[in-house]
Every structure is written in C-alpha cells, then in structure tokens.
Amino acid sequence: MGRPLLFIDFDGVINQFPDDKVMRRQGRTGWMRPDDPHRAAYAPDNWFRPDRRERLLVRDLGRRFVIRWNAELVARLDALDADKWWLSTWQPETGRLNRALGVDWPTIRWYDPVTRDGIPTGKRRTILDALKQDRPIV
C-alpha cells in the first residue's frame, strides 16, 4: 500500500464560517443557553478557532472574499505523512490559497473552471478513481 492520499476541501474545512456572535466574543460560549447545540461545536476542545484572516481576490468572480483559518490546523495538515491535494471549487485560486496559508499543495483538476463542467460529479469521480490506486484516502 502506498502513501495515503489526503484530499482537502477549503470552505468549511480550512476556511471557517464561525457564528458572528462567537467571533465577536473571541470564541467564548458561556453566553449561549446550556442546551444550545452550538455550545459543544464551539467548545475549545472541538474546533481550531480562526487566528488568521485575509482578503483574497477571486479573479473569475471579480470580487474579494474574506477567508479565516487556524494556522495550527494548517500546519498539522501539512505535517501529515500523506500526499496532500486540493479538491475544492477554489480550484482556479489554489495558488493564492497556498501563498496565504504558507503551503504548497497541488490541485486536482476536477472541473472546467470556464464552463463549470464537472461540478456536480467531479469530486465523486476523483475519489472513485483514487480508490483504484489501492492507497488509503482521507
């Protein structure tokens, strides 16, 4: 068996979308009701609180997006003994993501960024093709 393959999505995995109230309160959850399900999700042991932020220009959309991530999470992913690949709809912008995050992960070309052909099935097809390599996949 070869080295594991680690396919990395960006939005919701590295690029976090925390609740605005949680962000304003620096990640604290004591203000939430005890039965609020978000309380456990934002508990310090359950998430890497974003500590980095950058505005990136997404060329094909012609606008800037704020991205938020945790440097320790990215460092831990980068340190894994695996072949790391971007598998994200940010495909045309992963070079910018690499620079912002301080990594050098190659990108799986799973859809056509001009025609958007492959968006509905491209990720699934990529994973199914990778399974044929008899390597562990994350």
Provide an overview of this structure:
- A two-stranded parallel sheet has the order 1-4. The chain has a two-stranded antiparallel ribbon with strand order 2-3.
- The protein is globular and about 50 Å long.
- It has helices at residues 20-24, 37-41, 71-79, 94-101, 122-131; strands spanning 5-8, 52-58, 63-69, 83-86.
- With 138 residues, it is of the alpha+beta class.
- The chain has five helices and four strands; from the N terminus they run βααββαβαα.
Topology as H/E string?
EHHEEHEHH
> What's the helical proportion of residues?
25-40%
Which descriptor suits the 3D outline?
A: globular
Largest sheet: 2 strands, parallel
Contiguous helical run count: 5
SS-derived structural category: alpha+beta
Number of strands: 4
Cα-based radius of gyration, to the nearest Å: 17 Å
Oligomer: single chain
Distance between the termini: 14 Å
Mean pLDDT over the residues:
88
Strand content: 15-25%
Which stretches of 5+ consecutive residues score pLDDT under 50? none
Give the strand order of the largest sheet, numbering strands 1, 2, ... along the chain: 1-4
